[in-house]
Amino acid sequence: MTENRSRNQRVPAKKKLDNLSAVLYGINDLRMEQKPIEDPDDHEVLLEMHCVGICGSDVHYLTHGQIGDFRLSDPMIVGHEASGIVSKVGAKVKHLKVGDRVAIEPGVPCRTCTYCKEGRYNLCRQIFFCATPPDHGNLSRYYRHAADFCHKLPDHVSLEEGALLEPLSVGVHACRRAGVTLGSKVLITGAGPIGLVTLLTARALGASRVVITDILEHKLKTAKEMGADATVLIDRNHSLEEISTHIIELLQGEQPDKTIDCSGIESTIKLGMLVSCCCSAVA
């Protein structure tokens, strides 16, 4: 049957795909711009992005323009804590298909250096890492990424939860390096997002007691709600020795056998070394 249309009846236009992206040009200069949608290579996938978290590193690049030796010199798309839905697959990708929901592992190593072969690919000197100059991030509507660093989400894990897996992996890595296990007494310095996921991980690994510190009371309140046995509000008027004594009291008179720093502040690292009987692990 031939469908007749009146002269005034319009055929719906095909939806135009856009790739609006958050591009950082310099300190406090973040712009929303259209970027090309790139086809994936043989071992890549194109993702329709769903959730992208805002990491402290994104904020630091926005407000300072650099982190350590990594300095913003050219415009960079921000974002690395992310999840998305597979839109296209490369010719040699076998484990993913269009429509799969994935969490993105943002650091893609060379796969051939000694570190990579030893399984310590996070130390690869040629690693591509989203939103670390000069590498673009994934706060875009479409983004292509190495397929083997896209992890398929099970049905019971939401895309929002999938975007949280990257920061969670930091807590898991720190607790593994520290050797947290059944009965561990753990001190965590810093109750930001990384400190909180480290707290959750320590609990999951069987820590018997966890104390967490911070300079902000509302963060410690959240930590308490998430399972911390005790919290310590750092008062700058108290010496590290006094704070250390208080922490030992909260641990029922014992030193923590695992200390994990999740702040990167010199004073908290000193506190961790002062109060602990073992080496500190840095998240």
Automatic annotation (TrEMBL):
Gene Ontology MF term list: L-iditol 2-dehydrogenase (NAD+) activity; zinc ion binding
Record has NAD as a keyword: yes
Domain Enoyl reductase (ER): 26-251
CDD domains from the UniProt entry: sorbitol_DH
Record-linked InterPro entries: ADH-like_C (IPR013149), ADH-like_N (IPR013154), ADH_Zn_CS (IPR002328), ER (IPR020843), GroES-like_sf (IPR011032), NAD(P)-bd_dom_sf (IPR036291), SDH-like (IPR045306)
Requisite cofactors: Zn(2+)
SMART domains in the record: PKS_ER
Keywords, alphabetical: Metal-binding, NAD, Oxidoreductase, Zinc
Record GO biological process: sorbitol catabolic process
PROSITE patterns xref list: ADH_ZINC
Superkingdom of source: Eukaryota
PANTHER family: SORBITOL DEHYDROGENASE (PTHR43161)
Family: Belongs to the zinc-containing alcohol dehydrogenase family.
Name by which UniProt lists this protein: Sorbitol dehydrogenase
